Amino acid sequence: MAGAVGAIATGPEQFTIVSPCGPCRQMLFDLDPDIRAVVRTKIGPPEAVPVRDFLSYVSDWR
Q1: 36-39 and 47-50 as β-strands: parallel, antiparallel, unpaired?
Q2: Residue 51 burial by Cβ neighbours in a 10 Å radius (0-12, 13-18, 19+)
Q3: What would be an example GO MF term here (predicted)?
Q4: Which pTM value belongs to this model?
């Protein structure tokens, strides 16, 4: 899948990034295994990580 995708989030000033839940991770993987999700890191700024990197037991129907 090719194309550009943007991400927008809004919330209170103390807004924190929440990692996608298991079913959402699977759905994102089904759309495109290389899709990236923005996740918090222990130190430093948030990172965009391929969703395949944080799925333990993925169901790949392809």
Answers
A1: antiparallel
A2: buried
A3: catalytic activity
A4: 0.62
